[in-house]
Amino acid sequence: MKELELPDVKDVLVEYKQMKLLYKSALKEIRTKLEILNDEFKFVHKYNPIEHIESRLKTEESITRKLFRKGIGVTMENIQKYIDDIAGVRVICSFTPDIYRIVDMISAQDDIEVLKTKDYMINPKPNGYRSYHMIVKVPIFLSDRVVPTKVEIQIRTVAMDFWASLEHKIYYKYEGNAPDYIKKELKECADLAAFLDSKMLAINEEVKSIQQEE
Ligand code: 0O2
Known about the structure:
The protein is an alpha+beta fold and about 210 residues long. It has six helices and five strands, in the order H-E-H-H-E-H-E-E-E-H-H. It has helices spanning about 10-45, 60-70, 75-80, 95-105, 160-175, 180-214, and strands at about 50-55, 85-95, 115-120, 130-140, 145-155. Bound molecules: ligand 0O2.
């Protein structure tokens, strides 16, 4: 009987480490681009659209769980093909128009390819989740080749981020089955956060117009 040929564990590990190196580099590239845009915007307009930036590489556990949820086998090829957020950057802005400013500035860069966008601000999820998601490809220049690498950029306001981090914790605590009254309260909080965003924006616009008149 022919023996089953399994891939050498050492080879798989080397391949996995190489893949992580690529995604880590892509995070650095995107962070740098965003920091440059923010610095320039601050210089020109005396105002910074970005409050802060967070970035992370998705854990092995989370990658495996996501593939499992999608009913896809855990292989190196599938990870790269089907998981768009191995490298994830989160951009936190003060006001909603800042979000679209960042989207436009990043999309306009020649070396960035925008693969997918999801506007959960115009179309919030039924649970109240609001955010803007972009999947982009950025070229990573290695010693002997260039590898376009995927990064997920999530852009949201401070209020949307506050809501999403609590909702994320609750989601995992209850493994996606939180009691109905908690879901209802979370939805109410999401609506309040949206209201807060629009109120704060209106106040800011008002103050800006007073300053221009002076
Ligand atoms: P984690 O633990 O944050 O990494 P698709 O790629 O289109 O097949 P996917 O990946 O669900 O489907 O796409 P989507 O909707 O763009 O969501 C990607 C990420 O956005 C999620 O990653 C979350 O980080 C965030 N997100 C989406 N929906 C919600 C939500 O309802 N609440 C919160 N708090 N975050 C959300 P992961 O891998 O699901 O989770």
